[in-house]
């Protein structure tokens, strides 16, 4: 009734190779090379990323503290009122 999508045309001189997923190793060298590589990359970038993050966190908490102090009533301003 017609060709299916998988074999529409026969192409000559093209060789394809594939490996069964059952023959592949899912996590080769995961513990021996993967985790040390993550640690190396983390330690190389933490000194570039952490100082600005700490600075922004301290600025944010300082700003919130100053804002909450500014909203607070000062008792000395109202002690002469009845």
3D architecture notes:
By secondary structure, this protein is mainly alpha-helical. It has a domain at 45-70. Helices cover 51% and strands 0% of the residues. It has one helix and no strands. The protein has one helix at 30-71. The longest helix has 42 residues, at 30-71. The relative contact order is 0.04. The mean pLDDT is 86.
Features:
single chain, 82 residues, mainly alpha, 0% strand
How would a textbook summarize the main sheet?
A: none
Structural class: mainly alpha
**N-to-C SSE string, H for helix and E for strand:** H
Subunit arrangement of the protein = single chain
Low-confidence stretches: none
Helix content: 40-55%
Beta-strand residue percentage: under 5%
The strand count comes to 0
N-to-C CA distance: 99 Å
Bulk shape: elongated
List the total number of helices. 1
The whole-angstrom Rg is 33 Å
* Average of pLDDT: 86
Secondary structure blueprint with pairings:
Layout: H1 30-71
What can be said about this structure in brief?
The protein is an all-alpha fold and 82 residues long. It has 1 helix and no strands.
